[in-house]
Specification:
Strand 9 and strand 10 form a beta hairpin. It contains 10 helices and 10 strands. With 263 residues, it is of the alpha/beta class. It is globular, with a radius of gyration of 19 Å. Strands 6-7-8-3-9-10 form a 6-stranded mixed β-sheet, sandwiched between helices. Strands 2-1-4-5 form a 4-stranded antiparallel β-sheet, covered by helices on one side. It has a domain of 165 residues: P-loop containing nucleotide triphosphate hydrolases (Rossmann fold), CATH 3.40.50.300. The protein binds adenosine-5'-triphosphate (ATP). The site of adenosine-5'-triphosphate (ATP) has 11 residues, from strand 2 and helix 1. One of its GO terms (biological process) is D-alanine transmembrane transport.
């Protein structure tokens, strides 16, 4: 099922391309020789049993971990680019457990996502007085629009602390969308949600993404959600890719069934 891509073709026309990505922690090979591509505008699911290396791969793509191998965004090698710079290039992510700032309102937590757009550096406000204010105002307006789209407008001024899990999850996704990322990495967005919550959330997300050229890479344990939204599925097991293809094919792949269910 895993069809190796010829090295000369790697990265051509792909939004994200991983070539021989590897990382070890004190002798444990969390990722070994991971190579696959994600097409522009697609939704790709990254699945695999617990400990397969999915979150580690997200940490490598977003730049939290430095891995071996090559990571390309739209053909550009970002393997040694710092995580803040990757964010400015359009890589956004969410975390397995929503990482929100305690004590801050929903709106404030979303507006923080705008820092990924601060590409101009510290001299920008000196060279263009008023620019920061304009940018902050724009970020607030866009955040308010997104909160409306995702059904959170009525909670705008509410501190995030007491919100139910499903709403915290939505706030984190909205924050990741604020800078209009080109590549969105979603780490288990349906964890703790039933289909009745995660399906409408994805309907909104995919409707929002239409016409925005956003590519989504999704780590997800809910196969219901994977089958609903992902055309392409990559399966990791023990740090290596064991399958890479169309969702329905991958689901029937004996190597995948064995990885999940054992012999
Ligand atoms: N910072 C780290 N230090 C040491 N080991 C790590 C570190 N990060 C990940 N690992 C190890 O790498 C392996 C892969 O972990 P990872 O969290 O990426 O798996 P996962 O597929 O996301 O699992 P799950 O589905 O349970 O979230 C595990 O053996 C884990 O213990």
């Amino acid at each position: 099922m895993v069809q190796p891509i010829a090295p000369s073709r790697l990265g051509v026309g792909a939004e994200l391309s991983l070539e021989h990505v590897s990382i070890s922690f004190r002798g444990v090979h969390a990722l070994r020789d991971v190579s696959f591509e994600v097409r522009p505008g697609s939704v790709t699911a990254l699945i695999g049993p617990n400990g397969a290396g999915k979150t580690t791969l997200f940490n490598c793509i977003s730049g939290l971990y430095r891995s071996g191998g090559t990571i390309r965004l739209d053909g550009r090698d970002i393997s040694t680019t710092r995580s803040a710079a990757r964010a400015r290039l359009g890589v956004a992510r969410t975390f397995q457990t929503p990482a929100l700032v305690a004590g801050w309102s929903v709106l404030a937590n979303v507006v923080v996502g705008d820092c990924a757009r601060g590409a101009a550096g510290p001299f920008a406000s000196f060279l263009q007085p008023g620019r920061e204010n304009r940018q902050a105002r724009q970020a607030h307006e866009q955040a308010a629009d997104l909160l409306e789209t995702f059904g959170l407008a009525h909670l705008s001024e509410t501190p995030v602390d007491g919100l139910p899990h499903a709403q915290r999850r939505r706030v984190e996704i909205v924050r990741a969308l604020l800078p209009s990322p080109r590549l969105l990495l979603l780490d288990e967005p349906a964890a703790g949600l039933g289909n009745e919550e995660s399906f409408p959330l994805f309907d909104r997300l995919l409707r929002w993404a239409e016409g925005r050229d956003m590519t989504v890479l999704l780590v997800e344990h809910s196969m219901d959600l994977v089958m609903k939204v992902a055309g392409h599925v990559v399966v990791l097991d023990a740090g290596g890719v064991i399958a890479d293809g169309a969702a329905e094919e991958v689901r029937q792949d004996p190597a995948v069934i064995k990885a999940y269910l054992g012999e």
